[in-house]
Design brief:
InterPro entries: ATPase_Atu1862_pred, HerA-like, HerA_central, P-loop_NTPase. GO terms for molecular function: ATP binding. This protein is an alpha/beta fold. It folds into 3 domains: 248 residues, 3-Layer(aba) Sandwich (Rossmann fold); 55 residues, no CATH class; 89 residues, Arc Repressor Mutant, subunit A, CATH 1.10.10. Helix content is 41%, strand content 16%. The protein has 18 helices and 14 strands.
Length: 479
């Protein structure tokens, strides 16, 4: 049994926590501000730093000092997108890195989105990376609130869903949730109910004392004892702690938070007149610029081009002999320009199609010269790495026939696999699959391989040297 000393009991004996049992049963910590929750979490993290991978969701930047002593990676989310945080969550599991997700510098809305994206990335990691990890969430009521607050419903749903996955379904994936909250009444019940271990600190509100007593199996009349707990004292219960409620005083820690509590500092004697000059110093106000007259937005650019063409035809009818017809090479070139555009891998199909229509109209072609389905197949063919000459080959037409039986969103993934198998190249990696599917989530892109195998268009094989894919019915196979 791997146990760590959490603190001392009422009789001075060591109170231990069984780490393997904790990883299987999860932990809930509750206590008012100043009760010692952060101290308890720091003690737990320090004692297990060399035993298990740790992930700390830190809304106040209190735990970044762990990096100095234990080598934790600190991820500041200020300059990170949701997609990069989701990918970082997957990579953290793959490399078994202990990290602190520092949310201190961002507002509440972004805190929810960042925590939700990062936790979802960890949750979506492939089965091969389901190593045991201790996931500690401080101020959990912010990320799994009972009711919506100042943040948007979308951000709240993202964060609450990630927290629910962590506590309800995380055990099978090796994720052990340790959540700390100031008030149980503000924490979503479906998140709190999944914990089997409890450490209840000082609290004063009747509703919180009653819930804490219920969780510990104590009588209601004993609930008022939570008011008498000193800072750093907690009532412990659970299979990883004690079979009966037990008082524990948390032991000392090595690291300390950058934040400090309030300290009394003597006031410097300053006369009221000097203070008046300082506080009421005039502020230079700038006269705002006059607002410009609001103008109606310009019409759609494609509509302008169509109107211009209609006017030209009315003034100077173009002879039919010189009308511009669609040339396959010209269409290929236009679609290739759309593919080469910045960020085109992740733009919606409708946006890319509108870009193509605009380019076609500039060249004098009809905006409907290529219908959407044909555009999507040509787009996927170019993204797959196929050149113009080979795209008309009988072999590739067979691959396009199979792709036409699939939903549009996975046709690009299939054609990428088909081109790679046709040339007997190494199977595309997760990043290439994600770009072909138009997503930043590597886990979501990998799931398309399983979907294509269920549709019986590919055969998927994992080997010690990597992944191999064979195209059903065509006899092509990646290296």
């Amino acid at each position: 049994m791997t146990s760590i000393v959490l603190g001392q009991g009422r009789d001075g004996s060591d109170t231990c926590i069984d780490l393997p049992e904790l990883l299987a049963t999860r932990l809930l910590v509750q206590g008012n501000s100043g009760s010692g929750k952060s101290h308890l979490l720091r003690r737990l993290l320090e004692q297990t730093a060399t035993l298990v991978q740790q992930v700390m969701i830190d809304p106040e930047g209190d735990f970044v000092t762990l990096a100095d002593h234990y080598g934790h990676l600190v991820i500041d989310v200020e300059d990170q997108s949701e997609a990069s945080l989701r990918a970082a969550g997957e990579r953290v599991r793959a490399h078994r890195a202990s990290v602190v997700l520092n949310l201190e510098q961002v507002e509440a809305e972004m805190q929810l989105r960042a925590a939700g994206a990062f936790l979802n990335g960890m949750f979506e990691a492939p089965r091969a990376h389901w190593y045991p990890a201790l996931v500690v969430v401080d101020e959990a009521q912010l990320f799994a609130p009972v009711a919506s607050g100042d943040t948007s419903d979308e951000a709240r749903r993202l964060s609450l869903g990630a927290m629910t996955n962590l506590m309800c379904r995380g055990r099978k994936r090796g994720l052990a949730g340790v959540i700390a909250t100031q008030r149980l009444a503000k924490l979503a019940k479906n998140v709190a109910a999944e914990a089997s271990n409890f450490l209840m600190g000082r609290t004063f509100l009747d509703i919180d004392m009653a819930r804490a007593a219920d969780l510990l199996g104590m009588e209601r009349r004993a609930a008022e004892s939570f008011r008498d707990l000193a800072r750093g004292q907690f009532m412990a219960l659970g299979p990883a702690l004690s079979r009966r409620p037990k008082l524990v005083a948390i032991g000392p820690v090595t690291t300390a938070s950058h934040a400090t509590g309030p300290v009394l500092v003597p006031l410097e004697p300053v006369s009221a007149e000097d203070l008046r000059d300082i506080i009421l110093e005039p502020v230079h106000e700038f006269t705002p610029r006059a607002r410009r007259e609001t103008r109606p937005p310009p019409p759609d650019l494609l509509a302008q081009l169509d109107a211009y063409g209609a006017e030209r035809e009315a003034e100077e009818p173009v002879p039919s002999a010189v009308s511009v017809e669609a040339d396959p090479d010209q269409l290929w070139s236009l679609v290739a320009e759309v593919v080469a555009g910045e960020g085109s891998d992740y733009k919606p199909l409708a946006t890319l199609y509108q870009d193509f229509q605009l380019r076609a109209r500039i060249q004098g072609l009809s905006r409907n010269v290529l219908e959407l389905g044909s555009f999507n197949r040509m787009l996927a063919t170019i993204r797959a790495g196929m050149d113009r000459e080979r795209s008309d080959s009988e072999e590739w037409k067979q691959a396009q026939t199979v792709a036409a039986t699939l939903p549009e969103d996975v046709q690009g993934v299939f054609l990428l696999l088909a081109r790679t198998a046709l040339d007997a190249e190494v199977c595309p990696d997760d990043d290439a699959l994600a770009r072909a599917y138009g997503t930043h989530s590597l886990g979501r892109a990998r799931r398309q391989l399983n979907y294509l195998e269920e549709r019986e268009v590919i055969v998927l094989q994992d080997t010690p040297l990597g992944r191999r894919v064979a195209i059903v019915g065509l006899g092509w196979q990646t290296a």
